[in-house]
Amino acid sequence: MTASLRYRLLPLLSVLVLLALWQGLVMGLALRPFVLPAPSLIVHTLLHDRALLDAAALVTLRTTLQALGLAAFGGLGLALLFAQSPGIGRALFPIAVILQVTPIIAIAPLLLIYLSTHAAVLLAAFLVAFFPLLAACVQGLGAVDPGLADLFALSGASRWQELRLLRLPTMLPWFLGGLRVAGGLALIGAIVAELAAGASGAGSGLATVIVESGFQLNIPRMYAALVIISAMGIGLFAITTWLARWLLRHRPEGRQQSWA
Amino acid sequence: MNAATPLVALERVGLSFGNGAPVLQEVSLSVAKGEFLALIGASGCGKSTLLRVMAGLQQPTSGRVARPQASDNIGIVFQDATLMPWASAFDNVALPLRLRHTPRAALHDRVMTALAQVGLADRAAARPHELSGGMKMRVALARALVVEPSLLLLDEPFAALDEITRLRLSDDLSSLQAKLGMAVVFVTHAVSESVALADRVLVMARAPGRIMAQFTVDAPHPRHQDFRQAAAFLTMVAEVSASLRQTLHAGDDL
Predict the structure, then answer these.
(1) B11 - beta bridge partners?
(2) Disulfide check for A68: which of A186, B140, B167, B171 has CB 3.0–4.6 Å away?
(3) 3-state class of B236 per DSSP?
(4) Chain B residues in contact with A152 (beta carbon < 8 A)
(5) Which residue, A245, A252, A198, is CA-closest to A222?
(6) Distance from A147 to chain B by nearest Cα, in Å?
(7) A42-65 pLDDT, tens per residue?
(8) Is A156 left (phi over 0), alpha (psi -120 to 50) or beta?
(9) All structural domains of chain B with their residue ranges
(10) What is the pLDDT of residues B60-119, one digit of tens each?
(11) Which residues of chain A have a CB within 8 Å of the CB of B87?
C-alpha cells in the first residue's frame, strides 16, 4: 500500500474504527436495541425495511432536489434583476433577509396549514436554500474586474455581451460555492418541514419515518432513516463539489475546491 | 508628425467628482498621429483619469474633448493585466474583436498576429494563471494591438513588473510603435521610462491635476537599451526630474 493511498483511506478508517467501537460497546454491555441499536442491526433494518425506507427516501430526495433547482434559478434570476435595477434590489432585499433570519421550524407549521404537505415541504426547503444562492449571485455579479468592464465599454459591448461574456463567468465560482452550501440547507429545510408534517400525521418523507418510528419506539428504524439522510447530505456535497471542480477546472480556484 | 490634425485634442478640460474637489483643471493637450506621448506625475495627480477621459470612459465636467472617429480604434492597457482568468491567452486577445462582431475567419489570423507581435504565439492556449507577470502584460498588450489601434493608451503598464522584465517590455513597445505607427499615450511615474520612450513628456502636478511642463525628446525610434546610456538621455532625465520635484513643492503636503 502506497503512502498516498494510505492517506486517502484514512477518513474511511476512522469511520470503520468508530463503527467497530460502537458494535463492541453494544455487544459488550448487552444494550437492548431500543436503548442503542448496534450498527449490524441498523444495516439489517436498512435491508429489511427497504421498501418503506426507499419510498420515503425518494420523496425527501425529490423534494430536496426540486427545492435546490428552484433556489438556483430563483437566486440567479433575482440577482440578475438586482444587477439590472438597484431599486428593485433595495425594495426586495429586506424581504429576502426576513425570510432568511426567521427560523424555518417556526414557519413550517404555518406553511402546512396553507399548503398541501408536499408544497409546504418544498417551499420550506426552497426558502432555506434560496438565500445563500441569492447572496452568492449578487456578490459574484458585483465582483467584475473594473478594468475588464472598461474594456467592454471601450469595445462598444452590448449589455447582453457584458452579461454573457463577463458577468456570468465572473459569477460562476460564487454561484457554485452558494450551490454547495444550499444543497445541504435544502435537505435540512425539507427534513425540518417533514418533521413538522410528521408531527401531525401527514407527510411521507424520511423525517416522517423518524417521527412515526419514534411513536412506535422502533429505534433501529429511526437510525436507519438517519443513516440515509446522512448519506444524502454527503452525496449532495460530493456532487456539488465535483461539479464546481469540473466547471472551474481551467481556473486557479478550480484546483482549490477541496472535499473538506 | 502632423500637428494640423491631431488624433486627440483636449481643450481646457476640467473634471470634479461628486464632492466638488477638482481632479483635473484646465488641461489642454493634443496627440498627433503616430506620436509617443508620456504623462508623468506623482500618484494621485489625475493622470489615469486623464487617460480615461481620452478613452471616452469618463466625461469631463468642463472643456472640450475631440476624440478619434469610430473608425480609429483605441487600444488600452491597464496597470494590471486585467485578463479574464477563465479564458486562454487566445480568447483574451480575441475579446475586443468578438465584441465588435469580427467574422470568425478573420479573427483567428488577427489574434495570432497580435500574439506573435508580443512574442507569445506559442502560448495561445495558456490560461492567465499559467503565465508569468510579464507574459500576462504581453497578452494585455496583444489584446490592445489586435484592434489595430490608431491610439494606444497605456496606464502604468509596467509598474507591477520587475526591473528586467520592465526594460525588455519597454524595448519591445518602442519597436512595436516604430513598426505599427500608432500614437501612444503612456502614463507613468518613472522618469527614465518616460524619457526613454516618448517624443514628448508632459509633467503633471496634483490637486488639482494640471500640466506644468513639457519636454521634447528628440531621438529616433525605435530606441533601445543603449539610448539609456546616451548623454542626451541623462540630461533630459535630470531636467524632467527637476521639473517633477518642482510640482511636488508647488503642490501641497505630500
Answers:
(1) B64
(2) A186
(3) helix
(4) 99
(5) A198
(6) 6
(7) 999 999 999 999 999 999 999 999
(8) left
(9) 1-72+150-164+177-254, 83-149
(10) 888 888 876 665 688 899 888 899 999 999 999 999 988 888 888 889 999 998 998 888
(11) 169
Q: Name the minimum distance, in Å, from the CA of A126 to any CA of chain B.
A: 31
Hey, is B248 helix, strand or coil? helix
Cβ contact (<8 Å) for A150 and B98? no
Give me the long-range contacts of A36-44 (CB less than 8 A, separation at least 24): A36/A219, A37/A219, A37/A220, A37/A223, A41/A220, A42/A220, A42/A223, A42/A224, A42/A227, A44/A220
Q: What is the 3-state secondary structure (H, E, C) of chain A?
A: CCHHHHHHHHHHHHHHHHHHHHHHHHHHCCCCCCCCCCHHHHHHHHHHCHHHHHHHHHHHHHHHHHHHHHHHHHHHHHHHHHHHCHHHHHHHHHHHHHHHHCCHHHHHHHHHHHCCHHHHHHHHHHHHHHHHHHHHHHHHHHCCCHHHHHHHHHCCCCHHHHHHHHHHHHHHHHHHHHHHHHHHHHHHHHHHHHHHHHHCCCCCCHHHHHHHHHHCCCHHHHHHHHHHHHHHHHHHHHHHHHHHHHHCCCCHHHHHCCCC
Q: What is the ipTM of this complex?
A: 0.84
Radius of gyration of chain B (CA): 18
Coil/strand/helix, residue B33:
coil
In this predicted structure, the answer to whether residue A86 has a pLDDT above a threshold of 80 is: no
Give CA–CA dist B148/B93, Å, rounded. Answer: 12
pLDDT at B8 over 70: yes
Q: Which of A156, A166, A250 sits opposite B100 (nearest CB)?
A: A156
Q: For domain A36-256, say whether CATH 1.20.1730.10 is its number.
A: no
Query: What is the reported pLDDT for A23?
Result: 94
Query: B57 vs A153: CB contact, 8 Å cut-off?
Result: yes
Q: Where in chain A are the domains?
A: 36-256
The whole-model pTM stands at 0.82
Q: Which residues of B touch A150 (CB under 8 A)?
A: 52, 55, 57, 76, 78
Q: Closest-CA residue in chain B for A249?
A: B86
